[in-house]
Amino acid sequence: MVRTGKEYLESIRDNRSIYIGGKRVDDVTTHPAFKGITQTIANLYDIASDEKNKMIYKTEDGTLANKIYMIPKSREDLRDRREAIKTWSDSTYGFVGRSPDHVASFFAGFASSPEVFERGLPELKDNAVNFYKFARDNDLYLSYVIIPPQIDRSKASHEQEEKFLATGVYEEREDGIVIRGSQMLGTGAAVSNYLFVSCITPLRPGDETYAVSFVVPMGATGLKLYPRPSYAVDKPSTFDYPLSTRFDESDALVVFEDVFIPWEHVFIYKDVDLVRAQFQDTPAHKLGNSQAQTRFTSKLKFVIGLAKKIAAANGIDKIPAVQEKLAELASLAATAEGMLLASEYECTIDKNGTAVPNPRFLYGIMAMQGELYPKVIAIFRELVGGGVLQVPSSFEDLLNPETKPDMERYIRSATVNYEEKVQLFKLAWDVIGSEFGGRHQQYEMFYAGAPFVAKGYCYRNYGYQEAEALAEKCLNSYSIPKELV
Ligand SMILES: Cc1cc2nc3c(=O)[nH]c(=O)nc-3n(C[C@H](O)[C@H](O)[C@H](O)COP(=O)(O)OP(=O)(O)OC[C@H]3O[C@@H](n4cnc5c(N)ncnc54)[C@H](O)[C@@H]3O)c2cc1C
């Protein structure tokens, strides 16, 4: 089944506990902090359920599902899956990081490797695959929190001041477990159906209480979300803040106040090594991050397109020095896209027959992302100049008969009229200068772990043998001369 937007909106009216501005949110689909993003996600589901967008596939079990859940079996499948993901990311211009395709990709990776979960408790071994099928066949929106809260990073979870600061097992019962503690950072969690909870940060011996992996419906009793301030509220209009008002997916601290999780929703129980293995010994992390790079590629293209249009509007695009800056932007975007395509072209087929993106290129671009995106934004910032601030406070100044003539006369452009100019520059500000834009720099630097973590993936996955063999070959091709000259 592939859901429509309306079905998605109905599915998230479940009395979930979200606190914002000191109050509990009544209905996430109508609250001003979430209305924009829920409409955006609903639109994604409408796109996917429309056959002409080619986002539906036949699963291994003969059901019809959204391609975001596909387990790719070949390079062609990877391409097909990427094109589906791109259809979504182009529709949000890459500004919704944790759209439903992100965690769905992780679950496709889990389900492709059932033998990894067989290493754990026998009674739990089928749960990840069963939940994958349930999520796939109901086209669910999954989000995740897989990082312990930022308290004292020099200490393991079991060494913190209190036992249940990070999410852990408080009680084991016959029918399931009781979870207490908190986890960060639930992007999109407020508007998703289920939350996947685990820990991707390396756990240490003694951390067994925290070495779990499970899912929980967003409406579960005791599950509480504390989102950061919304960037969508109090904005005059979408014309004034085109991205903030529609794509603010929200990030939230998640608190578990003794939340009951039935065994069928538990995939890993008190197993430090298996918690690591679910991400690294299955294709989950690679499929999830190839989704992320597809989205990132859409975003870079969008920013570069906007930069080009703004340069033309200001009549600076004919200046060779400006063309050089536009070329620098283009080369950065082409590098990211090229690495994504290379990871697909150079994929490998694992022992389960799953096509896995090549980690050399996938983690190669992820390791650069923390510097690449801020660099793109810095160049864009330089190109737009003060134009982003030489705009009226709201669209109403373009309509008011007292102010409109001044707008028409003084907000001019080499190539576009005053309305188009204001529209262009307000969009640019939402990329580089609004709170939403600032959060996006933080997002691109941290969503897959801190920059040193992303570089660690690159270090471990480059495959230095080939490079070292070349260096060795060169070293062996000469030696100290036998005689003095
Ligand atoms: C906008 C946004 C959205 C996010 N969405 C999600 C989400 O949906 N789900 C989720 O689970 N997580 C999410 N995250 C959380 C993200 O995964 C974490 O921010 C990330 O793992 C880094 O952890 P941290 O923020 O605690 O940084 P820390 O680990 O505290 O690191 C901060 C800085 O400390 C320094 N540092 C710390 N340790 C070391 C070290 N060992 N060596 C060298 N330097 C070090 C580095 O300079 C590092 O950049 C999101 C983060 C952001 C910013």
What keyword list fits this structure?
485 residues, alpha+beta, Butyryl-CoA Dehydrogenase, subunit A, domain 3, four-stranded mixed sheet, 17 helices, 46% helix, binds flavin-adenine dinucleotide, oxidoreductase, 4-hydroxyphenylacetate 3-hydroxylase N-terminal domain-containing protein, FAD, HpaB/PvcC/4-BUDH
Mind explaining what this structure looks like?
The protein has 17 helices and 14 strands. By secondary structure, it is α+β, with helices and mostly antiparallel strands. The chain has a domain at 284-473: Up-down Bundle (Butyryl-CoA Dehydrogenase, subunit A, domain 3). The strands form four sheets. Strands 2-1-10-11-7-6 form a six-stranded mixed beta sheet, with no helix packed on it. It has a four-stranded mixed beta sheet with strand order 5-8-9-12. The longest helix has 30 residues, at 284-313. The termini are far apart. The mean pLDDT is 97. The chain binds flavin-adenine dinucleotide (FAD). Flavin-adenine dinucleotide (FAD) binds next to strand 5, helix 15 and helix 16.
